[in-house]
Prior knowledge:
The chain is α/β, with parallel strands linked by helices. Helices cover 29% and strands 24% of the residues. The chain folds into two domains: 47-255, Rossmann fold, CATH 3.40.50.300; 260-451, Ribosomal Protein S5, domain 2 (2-Layer Sandwich), CATH 3.30.230.10. Helix 8 packs across helix 9.
Amino acid sequence: MEELSPAAVAVTSGASGRSGKSSAVSLSGLTPTSPARKVTDIDPSGAVHRPSGIGELDRVLGGGVVPGSAVLLAGEPGVGKSTLLLEVANRWARQDRSVLYITAEESVGQVRQRAGRTDALSANLWLAAEHDLETALGQIEVTRPELVIVDSLQTLHATGVEGVAGGVAQTRAVAATLTTFAKTTGIPVLLVGHVTKDGAVAGPRTVEHLVDVVLQFEGDRHSALRFLRGQKNRFGATDEVGCFEQTSDGIREVPDPSGLFLNQRDEPVSGTAVTVIMDGRRAMPGEIQTLAMETEMSNPRRVVTGIDTGRVATILAVLARRAGIDLMGHEVYAATVGGMKISEPAADLATALALASTRHDKVLPDGLVAVGELGLGGEVRRVPDLRLRLSEAARLGFTSAIVPASTRDADRVRVKGLRIIPVRTLGEALDQLGLAKEARRKYPERRKKDRD
């Protein structure tokens, strides 16, 4: 076989092919900055997570901050991004490690005032207010920290790049430069990113591809609770969630948020049911409250907070058609406790039981949780991570649980201190609670018509 010269080879392009001309393209590459190595010869210690000092952040990152990584923290204005990262800087500095906090949105005096209010003063924490990217890199060279925080990505300006700070070209250039800096020096960089009105990271999509980790910091303006979720993580899973609470003294982590979504009352009331949802790999009980009022309106109101409105409408239809519990002539109100957002269908069964409870004004048994998805035929479908959900319910003192009988190996699911009640249909669940008898007593003519 004829050997090709490594120096050049004749190539005919589409354009030159028509004219019969060829051009020589060099195949000799540049000298590599570092030789290729076998994967087995590479020391894995260079990518070991270093704890930040904040357990909830480390949980989402996969164990801590990886040297040489670029982490993007995005969130709406006022959600607490800068406060969280200032606390990260404080915890990092208290482990006898230096950190440089570069702010392009505030003065150093403003950051110093917030640090004093949140007890984040440390001799290992350095502050710099810079708007120019090259000057910011110069600050890093002078201080040589072990962690760099940049607040924010959209307010730094790269000299020589067209556009204003925060524009597409500028944001891409700043992100690329800081990511390259992190890789070449081994110093991790945490970046604050703005979001659009739709909740997406502001700037070009390439920014999310450039960095190693993308975190979303979110929370309701009317609630002190904040959630940190991973959207991309090259060093760990993205199904973890961290929980924080915004206070007047800063922000604090909430390692056990389960009790925040359960109402604390002395006397039980009708129309409430408890379920256990999965937020990432974290099981969290949540209370669903409902209320039904008779109305003469032809189009009764449906007011839903914290639950998907479409699923509530579906559950109302299943209750009417499959269980004889008709709420079509009632205004229906449904909400979660503590601002919890429930999107997974595992809460269907609890929502249905709460609606049946409020319709008959009958209190559900104390210490009961219900987990299961409802089908249009009234069947109760299995849900993932059942054992994890039930273990969390038992830990919090619940004594009984209604679960799908169709769950794989449901008969072998055993949780100490928890009585498991498997059901196949919504009707079976209502029978277990005495609510089906109420429906048969109140709607005998409807059930007879259904049988006919």
